[in-house]
Design goal:
heterodimer, A: alpha+beta, CPE0013-like fold, 3-stranded antiparallel beta sheet, about 15% helix, elongated, B: alpha/beta, FAD/NAD(P)-binding domain, 7-stranded mixed beta sheet, 6 helices, 28 strands, globular
Amino acid sequence: MQRIELLCTRCPRGCLLRVTVVESRVVVEGNECPVGEKHGAEEALNPRRIVSTTVRIIGARLPRLPVRTSEPVLKNRVRDVVAALKNIVVEAPVKAGQVILKNVVDTGVDVIAERDMERA
Amino acid sequence: MRGVTVIGGGPSGLAAAVGLAEKGYDVAVVEVMGELGGMLTQCIHDGFGTKVFGEALSGPEFSERLVKKARSLGLKVFLNTYVKEVRAGEGFKEVVAVSPGGVQRLQTRAIVYAIGCRERNGFEIRLGGTRPAGVYTAGMVQRLVNLYGVLPGRRIVIMGGGDVGMIVARHLHLEGVESILMVFPEAGFAGLPRNVQQCVLDFGIPFRPRTVVKKVIGRERVEGVVLTRVDEKWNPVEGTEEFHACDTVVLALGLVPYTGELKLGVRMDPATRGPEVNEFFETSVEGVFAVGNLVQVFDYVDDAFETACIAARGVEKYLNGGLKTAPVRLSPGGNVRMLAPQRVEWVDDGDVPVFLRPAVEKANVRVVVRNREGRILGGFFKRYVRPSTLERIDVPRSMLSNLQEVSIDIAED
């Protein structure tokens, strides 16, 4: 049995959801609406986040390039994604959307540049 | 003479400039920094643009869409250019700006201010103690980390539990600082639930509600802070003082419209602390508009963007001799902290979007428009309101006809 507590992020109310998972059965409590129930179940079974950070860039006007995962990755992989990008160095010019690291830590998700960075 | 000069090249300024250039007006944008995009450039997290573009973008992605549009429309852009003086008289407006190419005197028919907001500082809350190195505003930390890859310190205390504080806490945590403690005088986080969960709870970042930094300790560099508990009225509780070692203090104390750089006498609203505007975001000076976070601090860039689009339509009306009538004044009533626009005066048939900040947290409420005698003219149902979320209602113009003033409140059941 797995029990988690989390704030619903789907509206300003921010219900405190208590989610219990027993085998494949999911029970959500504390939600005030059906959207919260769905959100609670998703967060318990498959919680995902977009990861944003920066990597070093050479030859640009700024020393860092903002990057993010192209799709949300499992929440417990967030730290691994950031760690995998620690020693990545790219060279300007870079285009927004360009893949910086393919299939980061085997998540099946690429890390992409968030912006253009011209050569300075 | 140029049609329109936009002061500020962040999302709101760009939205106004692009909106007007698309309609064929000759537009110039004056930006003090070295590139367009404003604060979004350093907001590398995602979640921007869900209302405007229908997808969650990062800050740089959001602004790049606008910048590309601006480029394709051939907008005149002055970068690294500081506005020194603004003159607005009958039929004559001039923006005097210092640019790398020399002093620019931009004569123009209309002006749009989009200079955003600023961070509240330690003096405003009378932060006690010494003034060593290691005290930063949250926006400065975000800039250092996300643009320059520089960590401000290793052991961090963040003052403030709003959205900016939480987002910066996550950046610092992921970039590998040793410890973070968030303190704030409220009973709970003041920001959006989304940020509470995804920035703080996701990473187990420690926080202490009803706690403030009484003073900063340190000679050359921050050595720690004295924390104290506070009661519901934010008064310190005696005997709760405690030393907490750290090398960095981050001030995330909230945002206020950046009116100090207006350089023009326009009427202010003491509640929003920004310029008072009509329904097309025109200030008290004809042909001078104000948009985005300068008017009122918005939670979502999408809403700030929307005010700029509305103002672009207003500028067009102004330039084409649109008519005005006697103004209807809008004022905040019970349970509403502030609202904008503060008056309605153009001849137009569109609904009037009103943005208001609730003073209460409540479920299933009605936002109610009343006349001077307190009679209800109309109501708007909201499932849930709270101070951290700005609300929008679209008031039909017919509801306001032949009135001098209305108030808008959140009705008690």
